Amino acid sequence: MEQLHNQLLNKSVKKVFFTFFFPSLFGLVLMSVNILVDGIFVGNGVGEVGLASVNLSVPVFSLFISLALWIGIGGGTLYSSLMGKGNQKKAKGVFSLAVTSITILVIVAGIVGRVNVEVISKWLGANADTLPFVMDYLSVLFLFGWLMALQQVLSVFVRNDGSPRLSMVALGTTAIVNIVLNYFMIFTLGLGVKGAAVATVIAEGVGVLILLFHFRKSRTHLRYGEFGWSWSMMGSIFSLGFPSFLAEAGMLVFTAGYNLAVVSLLGTEGVAAFSVVNYLHGFMFLSFFGIESALQPMISYYNGADQRERIVSSVKLGERTAFVLGVILLLTGFLAAPLLVSVFGVDSEEVKQLAIQGIRLFFIGYLFLGFNFVYMTYFQSVGQVGYSSLVILLRSFVFLIALLVMLPEFLGIAGVWLALPLSELMVAVLLFIFARKSLFQHSFSEKQKTLV
């Protein structure tokens, strides 16, 4: 820990940033490839209807993950704080409460969902073509979704207990097992969409088993302590983890909103085209989390050490990295759209052309998305959770939903593809005018005071 502190204070901001950035990016790319390959197998093995059906089911997946991140990150933050204060007994109580509460919560949600699977499938936009496939996928997800949630929570606590490599191994193994099982379930056993769901939950179960090795270590502080319900402790967990929940819930709203918009305009073909765009978005989007993972520990530490100039330098470096990454992704989408669509095994020419148009318009949003991520991370890292939550609410809920309702009335399907880019642009303009100017002006005034 002391070595890390010396690096943060004595190395250049640029060196520190890339020390954090590249390992985070590697892990997230591995996770992204897993998402992308999953879509490729479903598209080639089941077809456009299967691809659309899995995409219609994504909001339920996002719901489970958002609940897990809410409790996991909130609990992990509280756990680390208590361990830093030497209160190991209470820290173990936090771990016990987090694991127990997320398991019970997701199991109850799964039972309710399984009983009402047909109704929920129709709520998500399933029609006569996709309903049987959506029900197949969700039936498995509702019964075993607790494994996904448990892996997320355990992974957060294991990292906070000093074993980030084990978390990385669990993530990598989950991805590899999921890819292998997807091929086996879909192409060898012919189980289709249900096979894809079974592969996902089995792979998550393997990830949980790997994380359990952490508890066999003699030096681990992470033990399942005496369980006791505490409303105040749960309140602290929910408060600390709320921005992470909100961000993941935004993905739920994004997917459901886009699905409903395209299905109302173009039916199953529209959902199939958006499925291709969304799988690629899942791959591209996670790369921006590498910037967030690099900036968060830096800004948090510099804020505590009152290193204002280093915070500003970190934010500027994050802005430049986000812009370069956004340009690369936009050019990739614009130039390689036909190739990207072809790997999903889409046969319908109409779906192909819709997906190509969607990629080229939708990817414009990456020019602004990374900028917004930098400031979301900055606000959360300096303890301004309200501002971070406001950015998430504007970009993922308020602006996006309004644009998805209004733009298709004037631009048709092009309006659907442009809803996210315009939402990100609007938030970026607000941040540029208010947050960026305020941050840099404050830094300048602090510097002037020190010179005087």
Short structural summary:
Helix 3 runs parallel beside helix 6 and helix 6 runs parallel beside helix 8. Helix content is 87%, strand content 0%.
Can you lay out the helices and strands and say which pair or pack?
Layout: H1 2-10, H2 13-45, H3 48-84, H4 88-115, H5 117-123, H6 131-160, H7 164-188, H8 192-211, H9 231-266, H10 268-285, H11 287-304, H12 308-342, H13 349-362, H14 366-381, H15 385-411, H16 413-451
Helix pairs in contact: 2-3, 2-7, 2-10, 2-11, 3-4, 3-6, 3-9, 3-10, 4-6, 5-6, 6-7, 6-8, 7-8, 9-10, 9-15, 10-13, 11-12, 11-14, 12-13, 12-14, 13-16, 14-15, 14-16, 15-16
Describe what you observe in this structure.
It contains 16 helices and no strands. The chain has helices spanning 2-10, 13-45, 48-84, 88-115, 117-123, 131-160, 164-188, 192-211, 231-266, 268-285, 287-304, 308-342, 349-362, 366-381, 385-411, 413-451. The model is unreliable at 444-452 (pLDDT under 50). It is globular. Belongs to the multi antimicrobial extrusion (MATE) (TC 2.A.66.1) family. MepA subfamily. It is found in: Cell membrane. Keywords: Antibiotic resistance, Cell membrane, Membrane, Transmembrane, Transmembrane helix, Transport.
What's the order of the H and E elements? HHHHHHHHHHHHHHHH
Total DSSP helices: 16
Regions with little confidence, pLDDT below 50 for 5+ residues: 444-452
The proportion of strand residues reads under 5%
Tell me the number of strands: 0
Radius of gyration: 22 Å
3D shape: globular
InterPro entries: MATE_fam, MATE_MepA-like, MATE_MepA_subfamily, MdtK-like
Transmembrane segments: 16-37, 57-82, 94-117, 137-157, 169-190, 196-215, 236-259, 279-302, 323-346, 358-378, 385-407, 413-435
Keywords: Antibiotic resistance, Cell membrane, Membrane, Transmembrane, Transmembrane helix, Transport
Organism: Sediminibacillus halophilus
